[in-house]
Amino acid sequence: MGSRRRGGLVYRFVRLMTVVLVVVVVLHVLLLVAPWPRWRTVGKPGFAEGEYVSIVVDDGVPYVGFTHGSESRVVRYNGRKWETIGTFSSWPIRLAIDDGVLYVAFSDREKERRLTVMRYDGTGWEEVGEPGFSHGEVDDISLAVEEGIPYVAFGDGAHGRRITVMRYNGERWETIGQPGFSGNYRGNAFAISDIRLVVENGIPYVAYPEENQLKDGDPPIKKPVVMRYNGEEWERLGRESDFTNEIFWLDLAVEDGISYIIYDDPHDPTVMRYNGKEWEPVGEPHFASSAIFYPNIVIYKGTPYAAFKLLHGLRGVDVFLYKYDGIKWDIVPRQPLLLNIPHRGDADYVSLAIDDGVPYIACVAAYGKIKVVKYD
Question: Which of 35, 180, 247, 301 could connect to 263 by a Cys-Cys bridge, CB 3.0–4.6 Å?
Fold first, then answer.
């Protein structure tokens, strides 16, 4: 009697576990085929090895630029696979797209590391102005294009590695304002890195972490600086005292004349905007309570989005996308990108683009392999 009862319990338990397993499988299949938004890999994950990754997207077509070894490549997803559309003797490479025309800027090894800009019309590449047009070798580069006019900002080897901004006027490259305009405390010339350039309505904005030596003998510390060209000279937005902590990473966005920056403060992410008088926080400062790397900010139809690499707990590192709802920052879609990279791996060179409301993120995932995902 007791054995039959135990047998019945085992039978019911097995049936219950079978039902649970079937439900789990069905839910998993529904998640895979359901039309609701989720993170999807674009093409084959890990389709190439590389560093210094950047992504731009136009009309649903993503382009990725990256450096590997002594050369840089630009690839495009054609709906089935990633295809190479350009290879350059350069390090690093920056992308921008305007009205369907792709532009690249790079430190040209064949021109003594001077700056070269090229554009791709869908069939081939052509130089924009003279190749190697900068007066000296260049360090970090940022590229922006508005209404067919390309602009570049770079660490200028001809001016103490301070920042110079140039624009192509249809015939030649011309300097905007004073070359090497970025200043440092007491005139100390530290190399500028992590330069960000945005152009809106013909007005260029530049952000960078400036190294300042507060007094002789002290090590330099980095503070965020945002400059705007007012038609006559470069002017600083806000005051140095608007930012209290040293930073290492930043990014810049501008919409309707309002500048936004994201930076590590001193490790956690903070977003600020310039209200015309001073910098003010957008939402709660330190909205993700862990160290971030490679922050990105994009403003899409008035809504700020932020993406970055984040250290989180024992799971190692991952890439997160946040959206500001007007009050607070929320994770999209309340979970990371599920790269789930352990401490023995990494996630580097995060790059964010938004096309027609669809966020795309490119990064170097585990073992140096590039991965691109989109949320739709």
Answer: 247
237-249 per-position pLDDT tens digit? 998 788 888 888 9
Which amino acid does the sequence have at 113? Answer: R
The tokens of 202 are what?
A: 């013909």
pLDDT digits (tens, 9 = 90+) for 283-297: 999 998 788 999 999
The residue to which tokens 């630029």 are assigned? 65
**49, two tokens:** 């090895």
Please report which confidence band the pLDDT of residue 4 belongs to, taking 50, 70 and 90 as the band edges: low
Q: In what order do the strands lie in the sheet with 138-146?
A: 138-146, 149-156, 162-168, 173-175
Helix (H) or strand (E) holding 82: strand 82-88
Compute the distance between CA of residue 169 and CA of residue 163 in angstroms, rounded to an integer: 20
pTM equals 0.86
In whole angstroms, what is the distance from residue 205 CA to residue 127 CA?
25
Torsion of CA 10, 14, 19, 20, to 10 degrees: 100
Supply 245's token pair. 């902590």
Contact 150, 168 (CB under 8 A): yes
* N residues, the chain: 376
Half-sphere exposure of 181 (CA within 13 A, CB side): 23
- The answer to whether the CB of 185 falls within 8 A of the CB of 166 is no
